[in-house]
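Let us work through a complete example step by step.
Step 1: write down the sequence.
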Amino acid sequence: MKHSCAVLEKAAARASASAYSSHQRVDGALHIEFRRTRDGRTALGDLYQRAPCRVLFPTPEIGEPTLAVLLTTSGGLTGGDRTDTTLIVGPHAAATVTSQAAERIYRSLDADNEVQMRFDLTVGARAWAEYLAQETILFNGARLRRSFSARVAAEGRLLALETVVFGRSEMGEQFDTGLLHDAWQVYRDGRLVWTDALHLAGDVRRARTAPFGFGTSVAQSTLLYVGADAALRLEAVRSTLETGGGFGAASAFDGVLLVRAMAERAQELRTLMMTLVAGLRQLAGSWPARLPRIWQY
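Step 2: predict the structure and record it as tokens.
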């Protein structure tokens, strides 16, 4: 299939730069575009992938949008690794993009090297897009700089989820040193409606466990719903947060519904977010109140 020249040029430049690294590093890229067909279906319109980034297209369950599952063939990322993911859901199309499993960010050998992850989403007019990433687990000493940018048309809708786990706490591990810079930007109808960044560096444990930080929580989630009806979903989301586990809050503004939640157990947070996502996709998109089956494994 065809792919843009810009993607290839960027890939070549990064591959050339990484050739001088003293350690073997990965420089992955993924470009996926979904389009509406003449018979009303959503089909793959464009695809480019470079290891370790890969995508699978399992058959979705009846009544579900077209499904894409992302995976990293390297089994995790470490300092100096880079991934660049572009997702486009064209006008009137409907697609769900999720990940095969939790992404692991391992300890960096060099304090100057960071894992760099970029996600760029475009949602066309009257399109429905879901980006439902499973957890990102930060090992102690990990250094991650990640950016998430979404451009949603005035009549488009986006449901996006990201979760960060501060170490495998069930195994006695914690994310105490390293770097986490997690930046978000959301544009709606060409206008920037929300931007935010979380920055933890150096003595991460001190900042992370502070009462004004995450306290005793070991995981944190960000859930976004972008659409003209965002404010109408606020009451239902707050009701779920009150009865679910963990700690969370929600607000709505400028066609954006923002949910932030955290918990003292990663599984507890996962259960809460799955409940929220299932409810939102049914209320806002009339889809089944469930997540892709891969979330159950």
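Step 3: interpret the result. Confidence is low (pLDDT under 50) at residues 15-21.
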